[in-house]
């Protein structure tokens, strides 16, 4: 499928069901805190202009959540439906996120690749990303009053 047959745009409410299905299919082992419905709600409150979908007609076939915290940009949930992989959809999503972040002054993008899917590093390396010597740390926060 040539690139012209899919398009990248900002998430819209009508995409909700297909995005939920896509993330459940692509990230079946996601922890409960990454429930797709809650993730969408949080992203729409935080930085909705950086929630991107790739669509082929009415069907959403890819996503990414990007964001800028004032110091670094981040990429999350880069996901392409298995039957649409290998056609440039993932690359187009990342490139669009990069363009939007660069436009608001973001100097560098970071992302994390789970050790359970090391093959994703090959994809990012093709797009110019490099594995960096860092220790990744995280902490789960207690639910806030407006978390649901
Ligand atoms: C990783 C993923 C997003 C790639 O999406 P995609 O639409 O198939 O990727 P593209 O077709 O845009 O590929 C872009 C380039 O990366 C390469 N590439 C894609 N997947 C690759 C992989 N696993 N290893 C090495 N290179 C890869 C492609 O060959 C292409 O190279 P080219 O420019 O020389 O043609 C998709 O496989 C996916 O959703 N995987 C499951 C979720 C995941 O692991 N997400 C990333 C971590 S959160």
Short description:
By secondary structure, the protein is α+β, with helices and mostly antiparallel strands. 30% of the residues lie in helices and 21% in strands.
**Helix-strand sequence:** EHHEEEHEH
Compute the average pLDDT.
Answer: 93
**How many separate domains?**
1
Bound ligands, each once: coenzyme A
- Beta-strand residue percentage: 15-25%
Gross morphology is globular
Number of helices: 4
Strand order, sheet with most strands: 1-2-3-4-5
The residue ranges in which pLDDT falls below 50 over 5 or more consecutive positions are: none
Q: What's the CATH topology label?
A: Aminopeptidase
Residues in helices, as a percent range: 25-40%
What is the CATH architecture term?
Answer: 3-Layer(aba) Sandwich
Tell me the number of strands.
5
Q: CATH homologous superfamily - what is it?
A: Gcn5-related N-acetyltransferase (GNAT)
Separation, N- and C-terminal Cα atoms = 39 Å
Provide the structure class: alpha+beta
Radius of gyration: 15 Å
Oligomer: single chain
The profile of the biggest β sheet is: 5 strands, mixed
CATH class: Alpha Beta
Architecture overview:
The chain is an alpha+beta fold. The chain has a single domain (3-126), classed as Gcn5-related N-acetyltransferase (GNAT) (Aminopeptidase). Helix content is 30%, strand content 21%. It has helices at residues 16-26, 36-46, 89-103, 120-126, and strands at residues 7-10, 51-56, 59-68, 73-80, 109-111. The protein has a 5-stranded mixed β-sheet, with helices on both faces. The relative contact order is 0.15. The chain binds coenzyme A (COA). Coenzyme A (COA) binds next to β4, α3 and α4.
């Amino acid at each position: 499928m040539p690139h012209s047959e899919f398009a990248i745009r900002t998430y819209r409410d009508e995409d909700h069901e297909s995005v939920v299905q896509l993330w459940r299919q692509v990230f079946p082992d996601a922890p409960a805190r990454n429930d797709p419905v809650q993730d969408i709600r949080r992203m729409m409150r935080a930085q909705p202009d950086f929630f991107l979908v790739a669509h082929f007609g009415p069907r959403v076939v890819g996503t990414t959540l990007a964001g800028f915290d004032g110091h670094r940009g981040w990429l999350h949930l880069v996901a392409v439906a298995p039957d649409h992989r290998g056609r440039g959809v993932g690359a187009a999503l990342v490139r669009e996120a990069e363009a939007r972040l660069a436009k608001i002054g973001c100097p560098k993008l970071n992302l994390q690749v789970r050790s359970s899917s090391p093959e994703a590093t090959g994809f990012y390396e093709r797009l110019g990303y490099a594995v960096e010597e860092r220790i990744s740390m995280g902490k789960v926060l207690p639910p806030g009053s407006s978390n649901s």
